[in-house]
Amino acid sequence: MDDGAERPGLFAKGSVGRFLLLVTLGATALSAGLFGLITAIVMVGSAGFFASHSGDFSTAWDEGKGFGDGRTITECVREVERRAPAECSSFGMCGIAISTFTRACIRAANDDGYCAPVPDLSEIGASIEWKRSTCAAAPSRWCQALMGDVQSACQGRKDFAVDVSAGSGASP
């Protein structure tokens, strides 16, 4: 063997390593570009959707707040269940309007203890079990989605009560 001979390195001109490096860098740049393009399209589409539906959200918020004033949280939940067939798809997906109504109604309603047994959102296992047992009593295609909104609104009430008792005065 010739000890003085120089062996070509992994990235020497014309080597397979250099070719693979260029292919990898090109694929990475292409992937990053596509990700950026898709992100931009989603952001522009979302902004357009929310801009064109902002009246729907404020209407749903006003309706929820108006319905909840002077009523209990339980009455809000029953009203949400009543509205679900018109607001939710046959696949169990509910729109933002009913979610907005739910949150506004529960926030405005009088506390009748409905939210007391509702687990925190961070308690995944307890949340799944609560939704399962709640929906067993009143089964519908939309129950799981609706109870997710109810749970979130109850969490907001609990968080607001903690903030107020701590003296921060933050609004929910």
So how many helices?
5
Strand proportion, as a percent range, falls in: under 5%
Number of strands: 0
Helices and strands, in N-to-C order? HHHHH
Distance between the termini: 79 Å
Oligomer: single chain
Can you put this structure into words, describing what you see?
The chain is mainly α and 172 residues long. The chain has a domain at 54-165. The protein contains 5 helices and no strands. Mean pLDDT is 79; it is low at 49-54 and 168-172.
Q: Which properties best describe this structure?
A:
172 residues, mainly alpha, disordered C terminus
Short description:
The protein has 172 residues and is mainly α. It has five helices and no strands.
